[in-house]
Every structure is written in C-alpha cells, then in structure tokens.
Amino acid sequence: MAFAIASGVGPEKGLFTAIVAGFIISLLGGSRYQIGGPTGAFVVVLYTVILKHGYDGLVIATFLAGVMLFLMGAFKLGSIIKFIPYPVTVGFTTGIALIIFSSQMKDFFWVTYCNDASGVY
Fold this sequence. Notes:
By secondary structure, the protein is mainly alpha-helical. Helix content is 67%, strand content 0%. It has one domain (2-108). It has helices at 2-7, 11-28, 41-74, 86-108.
C-alpha cells in the first residue's frame, strides 16, 4: 500500500496489486524458493507514468512490460545483463534511492505547500 500511495494512487490499488501479483508469482514462478516483491525503483517510474498518462496509461505500460519480459525470457535474453557495467547499476540504484528519500522529506517534516496566489496554506 505504501508503494501505491508513493506512486500517486489509492492504497486499495496497492493492496489489490499485491494480492494478484502474489498469486501470479506463486503460479508462474520458476523456483520453489523464488521471491517476488516490490522494489523502490518502481515508485519513481510509476509516479511519472501516472502523472503523465493516468491510471489507464499505467495499466497499458504494465501489460507492455509483461509482454517484453515474456519475450526476453522466451528468447533467453537474460544474459545480456552482463553487458551493463556495475557502476551503472549502482548509480541507477543510488539515484532512485535519493529521489525516493527527497520526495518523502515533506511528509517527514509535515510540510504543506501553497498552490494558489492567496498565500493561504
């Protein structure tokens, strides 16, 4: 639910997604020990998609990502990850962490924003 709220949608969508994803991962998982769960990198991507294209755009992007992952698995393209340098992966992860951290500071310090010309908060 926290990922849903941070992504700009209601917590009920996050709960629904966690339930459905849990069943799909259990049904289609490749190993008895495989774990599936959310990752912080998705928050920034989900928020941007919802902001620009709405919830319907997110649904379409999700289905397209699933199709691409399926095709990459079918064509055994998982080994191409070895061509991405380690510093790129670490830099990406660190950048996402900083974006998530900085976006949560307003909630941590209870900061409210004024969105109109009156100056009333």
